[in-house]
Amino acid sequence: MTQKVAVLGTGKIGEALLSGMIRAGWDPADLLVTARRPERAKELQERHGVTPVTNAEAAKSADTLILTVKPQDMGTLLDELVPHVPTDRLVISGAAGIPTSFFEERLTQGTPVVRVMTNTPALVDEAMSVISAGSHATAEHLAHAEEIFGAVGKTLRVPESQQDACTALSGSGPAYFFYLVEAMTDAGILLGLPRDKAHDLIVQSAIGAAVMLRDSGEHPVKLRENVTSPAGTTINAIRELENHGVRAALIAALEAARDRSRELASGNS
After folding, report:
1. DSSP secondary-structure letter at 43?
2. For the chain, which terminus, N or C, has the lower number of CB atoms within 10 Å?
């Protein structure tokens, strides 16, 4: 792989991406990083063998720029990059809520931009990365983005109009599961189990259920029905979930996340 890739604003997700790319066969010598703090840049160099550079140097020398700063910092970063980004650079944004038009309006006309929403399971190579093309991005650019993000999990192409929904469902998705596990652990303690045993029971149940969802080909309703015997424990629990409006609450929560993504796109911090 001869193309140089720069990760700008390398936090946890950016580092996970670098690590995954190296395991997938990328030469660390072809990977550039920028970080706000010099000690962070040095840490990345020592840990992965990548090359720390400034944002301007990254824009001048890398073929692909992956922007991983927070949405509220993206405008400032672009102001710094614009004088140095030629139109043959591929710019990949990992910022939630910011449309490709935001970049296209600030970069040189014709610069290809790809929008990617990944999630924190990138840290364990189980990410779900959702990829959308900007106005000037080609199928080749999308394939290149898939090659990069495929190093840390699965990828899915969607029209950009669906990105806010994907952010709500997948980008924020791991937090919902962590929240559910937290609540179930508390319930286990209430029922008399030690915290560590409740945690182990729930986590393994979650892993097993996820593998069944992925590999069985069965609809989740069918899988749930297989656990739900007449007048049994599970149906009583499901009744309480329905009585407390858990399904409606989840739908409302996802709508709220989608709406916040739209607000970020409109510049509301």
Report:
1. H
2. C
For residue 222, count other CB atoms closer than 10 A to its CB: 10
Q: Are strands 127-133 and 153-157 parallel, antiparallel or unpaired?
A: parallel
Distance of CA 18 to the CA centre of its chain: 14
What pTM, to 2 d.p., does this model score? 0.91
Distance (Å, rounded) from C-alpha 110 to C-alpha 129? Answer: 25
**CA-based angle 66:72:75, to the nearest 5?**
65
Cα distance between residue 32 and residue 63, in whole Å: 11
- Nearest Cα to Cα of residue 140 among 78, 68, 84, 63: 63
Short-list 133, 131, 91, 99, CA closest to 266: 99
The answer to whether the CB of 113 falls within 8 A of the CB of 93 is: yes
Quick one: DSSP state of residue 231?
Answer: T
Nearest residue to 6 (alpha-carbon basis) of 38, 54, 43: 54
Transcribe 120-189 into DSSP letters.
GGGGGT-EEEEEEE-TT--HHHHHHHHHHHGGGEEEEE--GGGHHHHIIIIISHHHHHHHHHHHHHHHHH
What are the per-10-residue average pLDDT scores of the chain (269 residues)? 87 94 95 94 95 95 94 91 92 92 94 96 96 97 97 97 95 96 97 98 97 96 96 96 97 96 75
Query: Residue 14 carries which DSSP code?
Result: H
- C-alpha angle with apex 212: 96 to 198, nearest 5 degrees? 80
